[in-house]
Design goal:
By secondary structure, the chain is of the alpha+beta class. A hairpin with a 5-residue loop joins β7 and β8. α4 crosses α11. The longest helix is centred in the C-terminal third of the chain and has 21 residues. The two termini are about 25 Å apart.
């Protein structure tokens, strides 16, 4: 068994000292939720995080800094850009946030096809820097693979997950409207941020001219009007600073470090071990189940084993696939639970390539205050009840309008420049896409047989790319969005396709998909491995298809639902 040759270190006190009721690999959005639910139900839970510890507020070093406090005014140096060609492509990687992201050279992987893998290794993971959009899936998404003949059928439907959406929305605090849309169900929302006057004008024109398209208030993880449950977490109202990726000292948006992990700590049942690189899940051949997790200490490189009755894999999609593939034994030579040979296959992502923008005349006497950290959205209107295009899937559309600062002086320095910056410029408006990717077997990740990382773990090979369906979807978005903006009165419209590699969406999904049949899927309807039922996977790796909505709130719902199932199964002796 790979890893047996490692010098496994069991701390003084023996196996008992390293034994818990549950182990959660990863402390990000889904791992934090698994930890909260397990700890609330009384399970002594160990959270393994490969990065450093982060404490809410204390470890947000730039949260209250002014633009002039930064040596490079927020820009990344040329030297750092050259040293980090992948991570520096991320929209959130700037001088005020770069400490939350990995360094390329320290965490290598092999791109068989171009793939920009965006990672943040610390307690809280990427929940500190995430985009925070939180739309619900509808039954259209859960039934699409069955109706249109791709991937495999989801083993659940919207009604199965709806109560868990509510469960996490109420605790996390999601703002949004009540719109009655079939394609994007309403949730348990706080009041939304209001659209500005031009966004309201665009909304009105779209509603008047299209009977199947609905531009609505955002659904975003911000506390617009905190409830008692949020105040109990020590969180406060969003201040509309739009500096979220620095970490919010007000707790105005949801993250693991401001919400679920501190809540779990208060139970007395949580232990967090940072600097713990998960190597593999330990499988006991005699017992026929997983018994623990082998980790490599990030700093000492010492191997240690921890043991538990139930294991949650929440290392973020690609790392979860890596860990599962590396968890080999005589019973599972190709990775734990992988008799089907499908582990690491049918990888997918969201397509963000398309954007459209232009200028808008009028409302020059109107402005807005604060920096709204959200965008209005147009629910998917493609291929819902039937396939009505020459491509599969659909796309969510984010819309926006703004008045940037004016600079009519033509200067870039000096008094005239500063005076110009005190006045707003003309309105501009636009849209950008979040498109569905159809999972295909050819899109996969696998372990390198030759290259290892600094912890002796095989490097991951990414072989994930676009196809003709993706190209058609992008072109349809560009055409339709330009038309909608034109109808709304936007002029000088520019359409743009970034052609960016997969990965920058930071919505990787699949590889360990849910399904009804162990021959065609890895996980059952409760997110358990079909062939090793005390291992749960509730991050992006579990996704059977991608839908078009932002997936993080679905991961939260999956994690909470699965954790409660695990507690029930343990009590019944079914694990």
């Amino acid at each position: 068994m790979p890893g047996d040759s490692l010098n496994a270190n069991i701390n003084s006190g023996g196996v008992a000292k390293n034994t818990y009721d549950a182990i959660v690999i990863g402390s990000g959005i889904s791992g934090g939720w698994a930890a909260k639910e397990l700890c609330e139900k009384g399970l002594k839970t160990l959270v393994l995080e490969r990065g450093r510890n982060i404490v809410h507020i204390k470890d947000y070093p730039t949260a209250t800094m002014n633009p002039w406090d930064f040596k490079h005014r927020g820009d990344i140096t040329e030297k750092e850009l050259k040293e980090n060609p992948v991570i520096s492509k991320c929209y959130a990687y700037t001088e005020d946030t770069h400490h939350f992201f990995v360094k390329d050279k320290e965490h290598p992987y092999i791109q068989e096809k171009p793939f920009d893998w965006i990672r943040g290794y610390q307690v809280g993971g990427k929940s500190i820097m995430w985009g925070r959009a939180c739309q619900r899936w509808s039954n259209f998404e859960f039934t699409a693979p069955q109706r249109y003949g791709y991937a495999v059928d989801w083993p659940i439907r919207y009604d199965d997950i709806a109560p868990w959406y509510s469960h996490v929305e109420q605790f996390a605090g999601i703002c949004g409207g009540k719109d009655g849309l079939e394609a994007m169900p309403d949730g348990d929302y706080l009041p939304p941020f209001e659209m500005n006057c031009v966004e309201q004008e665009i909304q009105k024109k779209i509603s008047t001219n299209y009977k199947d398209r609905f531009m609505v208030h955002t659904r975003w993880a911000h506390l617009t009007e905190p409830k008692d449950i949020h105040l109990q977490q020590g969180r406060g109202k969003c201040q509309a600073r739009d500096l979220c990726t620095r970490g919010c000292p007000f707790g105005g948006y949801f993250s693991s470090v401001s919400s679920t992990l501190p809540w779990a700590l208060k139970t007395g049942n949580l232990t967090i071990r940072p600097f713990s690189v998960a190597h593999s899940i330990i499988y006991d051949e005699q017992k026929g189940k997983a018994t623990g997790v082998r980790i490599i200490d990030d700093q000492t490189k010492q191997a240690t084993e921890y043991f538990a009755k139930v294991i949650f894999v929440n290392a973020a999609c690609l790392n979860s696939n890596l860990i599962l593939l590396n968890s080999t034994s005589n019973r599972f030579p190709n990775g734990i639970g992988n008799d089907s040979g499908l582990l690491g296959k049918y990888m997918a992502f969201h397509n963000y390539r398309g954007s459209v923008h232009g200028t808008f005349r009028g409302y020059e006497d109107k402005y807005y205050y604060g920096r709204n950290p959200t965008n209005p959205i147009i629910a998917n209107y493609r291929n819902l009840h039937k396939q009505d295009t020459d491509f599969l899937g659909g796309y969510l559309t984010f819309a926006w309008a703004a008045r940037p600062r004016a600079n009519g002086s033509g200067e870039t320095i000096g008094a005239a420049f500063k005076d110009a910056l005190t006045e707003p410029g003309s309105w501009i408006a636009g849209m950008y896409m979040q498109g569905e990717k159809i999972p295909k077997e050819i899109n996969h990740v696998r372990l390198s047989k030759d290259e290892k990382d600094a912890w002796g773990i095989p490097q991951l090979i990414t072989s994930i790319g676009y196809d003709d369906n993706d190209e058609k979807l992008v072109q349809d978005f560009l055409t339709q969005s330009a038309e909608m903006l034109s109808v709304a009165g936007v002029e000088n419209i520019v359409k743009h396709d970034t052609k960016q590699a997969p990965g920058l969406d930071i919505h990787e999904m699949g590889g360990c998909r849910m399904g009804n049949d162990p021959k065609t899927s890895l996980l059952n309807k409760h997110n358990q491995l079909h062939l090793c039922n005390n291992v749960y996977v509730t991050d992006g790796a579990c996704m059977t298809s991608t839908g078009n909505q932002s997936p993080s709130v679905l991961y939260m719902a999956f994690a909470a639902r699965a954790a409660n199932h695990a507690v029930s199964a343990l009590k019944k002796g079914n694990m």
